[in-house]
Amino acid sequence: MRVLITGNKGYIGSVITPMIAAAGHETVGLDTGLFEHCTFGEAPPRVPQLDCDLRDVQASDLEGFDAIVHLAALCNDPLGDLNPELTMDINYAASVRLARLAKEAGVPLFLYASSCSLYGASGEDMVTEEAEFQPLTAYAKSKVLTEQEVSRLADDSFSPVFLRNATVYGLSPRLRLDLVVNHLVASACATGVIYLKSDGTPWRPLVHVEDVGRSILAALEAPRSLIHNQSFNVGSNDENYQIWQVAEIVNRIVPGSRIEYAPGATGDLRCYRVDFSKIHRTLPNFKTEWTVESGAHQLYRAFTREGFPYEDVDGPRYQRLKQIRALMSGGLLDSSLRWVNLRQAVVLS
Ligand SMILES: NC(=O)c1ccc[n+]([C@@H]2O[C@H](COP(=O)([O-])OP(=O)(O)OC[C@H]3O[C@@H](n4cnc5c(N)ncnc54)[C@H](O)[C@@H]3O)[C@@H](O)[C@H]2O)c1
Predict the structure, then answer these.
(1) Which of 172, 233, 167 is nearest to 205 (CA)?
(2) Would the CB of 73 count as within 6 Å of ligand 1?
(3) Predicted local distance difference test score (pLDDT) of residue 343
(4) All domains in the chain, ordered by first residue
(5) Which of 84, 122, 188, 223 has the fewest CB atoms nearer than 10 Å to its CB?
């Protein structure tokens, strides 16, 4: 298949693009490169690229693709709170526009990276794809609205599929540390402290970045009748954790580390336990291979091997919100997150 992957230079994209290529598909990327110079270890292999902002893509750019894997977005809750309108613009309006143009250009399959965060505050009970949406943030709302609107485009010629990923962890050349497992391991390695900002009670489903790649491959290769206009939670039933459990796993793996709670730490409203039976039942080729335990080991080994500077744990290099703020205050990005000077974007990369 000829596959366009938006957001291919990000945390998930830089892991799954080589996986899709290794499975024999032709890959082309589309990414504005916000985090292109935030590389951990070796840079990901380059692929042919549509070097444009998602908001500027044209139907003619999309002709000839068999599938689009749509990852590009402003990804995380605090980033959405920084400027909810931008999150709506890029994550929602530009995503729906991309889907419309894809349909117009005759692309039959549209795999959308959605998120289990749209279940928001669903509490202790396991939620399936049928559960009510309870988005708590601009980011989660943008995912709900995009799913709803793109779903209406489905017809005989256009199959959208909504892959609701659990919170992702694991090694990537475009590492993110604003994700709970990654942050706790990095913090334990660099400072010896596993610092919990909440009281550790909220439930969170977790999935390894390579297993996200496996779900995309399984969907790309599935018979259309099984996936047409369907939503799938992506993860596995036994990988729902309370945050304190994640802290204990990290504590066992990183020698000499200790767990600390923020003074006055309370619960986090965002709390959801997710049922992943549907994807395993529908796509038997999809199997997760990682657990939080093996993923934390992977990160620990990488951080020990490469060395992990203290200032990078909470600094702008691997924190999406801080990186964007740094690019804006340095005059490289304008207030709509467009590069002020495209040349600078290229030099940075
Ligand atoms: N990481 C997670 O835990 C997680 C969980 C659930 C869903 N998701 C979804 O998966 C997708 C990828 O997440 P990620 O963790 O790789 O995020 P990321 O921030 O690492 O990567 C996003 C990529 O999109 C690009 N991008 C942003 N705005 C763009 C624009 N206007 N035009 C072109 N490119 C643009 C960025 O340059 C970046 O490379 C997102 O849609 C996210 O919502 C992620």
Answers:
(1) 167
(2) yes
(3) 53
(4) 2-348 (3.40.50.720)
(5) 223
Give 313: exposed, middle or buried? Use CB within 10 Å, 0-12, 13-18, 19+.
buried
Strands 203-208 and 240-242: what pairing? Answer: antiparallel
Q: For residue 38, give both structure tokens.
A: 């935030």
Q: Is 274 close to ligand 1, i.e. is its CB under 6 Å away? A: no
Tens digit of each residue's pLDDT (9 = 90 or more) over 235-286: 999 999 999 999 999 999 999 999 999 887 776 778 889 999 999 999 988 9
Alpha carbons 222 and 229: distance in angstroms, whole number: 13
Over residues 330-347, the mean pLDDT reads: 80
Distance 226 CA to ligand 1 centre (A): 26
Q: How far is the CA of 127 from the centre of ligand 1 (A)?
A: 24
Give the model's pLDDT for residue 83: 80
Q: What angle do CA 145, 270, 264 make, to 5 degrees?
A: 150
- The DSSP bridge pattern shows strands 271-274 and 193-196 to be unpaired
* Other CB atoms within 10 Å distance of the CB of residue 247: 24
